């Protein structure tokens, strides 16, 4: 089974729902997804507007620099890279716990949330603390994801990349943890990307938003 | 059978393919579509950026003012409103003939193309000439379409509005005049808009464009 990729940013509620969808399919053994990071702060940074390749990188910034989303997303990305050193399941459990804390329980994306997610994911907390200190390596790993997302032209999250290389931003309003529902929503996404129409975009008119369940 | 609406601009090749798709389904008696105009020049005008309602209207501009797309789209819209006075079939035949001249035969969107489309659509040419002189009324009709598109929040063409009020930009790369294919592409659009996921956007990553057939 060839893996899909999901690019996500912890600050984004759509990315949270995308990761929940992916987790349902993954747990059922129906799809594989590789977790990768895309930074909305970097993607939307004015210095990067119109550039072929980014000139402003989140990974070049000090941890205490910038506005709230910059600081919180860098903190979360580096923590997630550290968590991933404890294996694939740990990576998913940590990422989902952190997403849920922020977007379901409406907590701040900060050090407290990171530590609560580490506990919820049953990480080896001593190992996690030690890995988080290896910051150069964590930043290099994050940089690799950000460079790949720039190469693909990711602009929002979640963006799913299919095994055939098709890639698109998939923004939806509702949450599912139900397998049959997740299957349908995933199948529809694939049908749009594989349609002979060559669909580039389906996007609601501004004043006719999608319905929340 | 309740009608769908298609908002389009003659300068847009995606709108052309959207109208061809609609025509196939309409001719087969499977769907109805009301033709309405949306102006990309107005929608993208800097004076309208961030405005709740447009302050710059194409219908307030002289016919010979502005850059190429402004002049040619106003010319085409007013001619299409005049053609529509000769009935629904005339309206479709004229609009499609003008679209094909510009986007299939790569002609300029100008007075020559308008007259060639009028002939191709078998319009009563004397009536057409007389109706085109009734410019205040033509502009008022165009203004009504532009106001409706602004109310819905249309931002690109084609935008289809379904009988239930769902509305989205549907951008695809390939042309079909085949009924079974048109059915599939239309069905998929409806499935996306009606999905319980509450899909707001599916949009390809910038460097992974949709495939042209």
UniProtKB/TrEMBL annotation, chains A, B:
Kindly name one Pfam family recorded for this protein: DSBA
**Record-annotated DSBA-like thioredoxin domain positions:** 6-167
Sorted alphabetically, which InterPro entries does this protein's record hold? Answer: DSBA-like_thioredoxin_dom, Thioredoxin-like_sf
| Coiled-coil portions | none
For molecular function, the Gene Ontology terms on record are: oxidoreductase activity
Q: Which domain of life is it from?
A: Bacteria
Q: What is this protein called?
A: DSBA-like thioredoxin domain-containing protein
Q: What is the lineage of its organism?
A: Bacteria, Thermotogati, Deinococcota, Deinococci, Deinococcales
